[in-house]
Amino acid sequence: MSDFIQVMTAIDSEEGAQKIARTLVEKRLAACVHVAGPITSTYWWQGKIEIEKEWTCAIKTRKELYGDVEKAIRAVHPYHEPEIIALPIIDGSQSYLAWIEAETADMGNL
After folding, report:
1. Which of 92, 42, 89, 91 has the alpha carbon at shortest distance from 61?
2. What are the backbone dihedrals phi and psi of residue 41, each rounded to the nearest 5 degrees, phi first?
3. For residues 99 and 102, what is the distance between their CA atoms, to the nearest angstrom?
4. Given phi > 0 = left and psi -120 to 50 = alpha, else beta, which region is 28?
5. Which uninterrupted H or E stretch holds 98?
6. Which domains are assigned to the chain?
7. Residues of the chain falling short of pLDDT 70
8. How far is CA 16 from CA 9, 52, 92, 101, in A?
9. Predicted model pTM
């Protein structure tokens, strides 16, 4: 089982995506958050198909931090039920994974 994950979420504005990114990095819950968009999302919501522009956040972190990452996203996310999913990082550059580990370490004062 991987110690590292990439958490994905989508939100309706670039500003909102940047707020999520900054919040997670400042709290050292993520080493890095890539923000991409706009994209077009098509989905069912409350009995009808919706088509909306969104921005995605690809959050690089450690598996043990998932619960805190989810709470932090929900605290700033405007959606009633935001997409928050975690994908295992099954392999990667050892130096990059060590960087994720170092940047998400408990700093004692956060």
Report:
1. 89
2. -110, 135
3. 5
4. left
5. helix 94-103
6. 4-103 (3.30.70.120)
7. 1, 107-110
8. 11, 15, 29, 26
9. 0.92
